[in-house]
Design goal:
Length: 183
């Protein structure tokens, strides 16, 4: 079921259908290869089980190995660094329902254009009592070309959140520098 919903959301975002209007104003990305954006609020509702979400921050960065790796070639060897490119997403989640909300990493999936990004790390599972709020920090691995295309028009970074039978996607467009919500 989750795969089907994710596929439908991605098709809605990347397909020929027009995107819905933004739910709230969004900030534009910073300059350079990496950048960051923050986005609109939205909420889920399933009977007494309800959460509200706000995309707090989305940005890219990279790290490299400290000592480097030995690369062996036909003409000898040399030391080179290994780079790890990452997409960071921080989502503020508030339990606006009247029952405990269970939040874990399985609720989130991220895409760069139509390629699903693998999880690099993320916040652990949390239980939110009614009225409680937390920030979930998610980190996804990216390729070097995905990282370098953060400020190149024509790309989308997509975070899909599924809660119960409902799902939504926060979509950052490198074309407009804005984040929209697709339900």
């Amino acid at each position: 079921m989750k795969r089907k919903i994710c596929s439908l959301l991605i098709m809605a975002v990347l397909g020929g259908r027009p995107a819905p209007p933004p739910a709230a104003a969004a900030l534009t990305a910073c300059g350079g290869s990496g950048g960051s954006v923050s986005g609109p609020n939205n909420s889920y509702s399933t009977k007494n089980d309800e959460i509200s979400t706000k995309l707090s921050n989305m940005y890219t960065d990279y790290t490299k190995t400290g000592s480097g790796d030995r690369v062996i070639t036909g003409s000898g060897s040399y030391w080179d660094y290994t780079y790890y490119y990452k997409l960071h997403i921080d989502v503020v989640i508030k339990n606006t329902g009247n029952v405990t909300a269970n939040i874990d990493n399985s609720l989130f999936s991220a895409y760069w254009d139509d390629s699903e990004l693998s999880r690099y790390s993320g916040s652990g599972a949390v239980k939110l009592a009614p009225g409680e709020q937390t920030t979930v920090n998610l980190v996804y691995s990216m390729s070097k070309s995905q990282y370098e295309s953060w400020n190149v028009p024509g790309h989308n970074a997509i975070l899909i959140i599924q809660y119960g039978d409902d799902a939504l996607a926060y979509v950052y467009s490198t074309e407009t520098g804005e984040i929209t919500v697709v339900r």
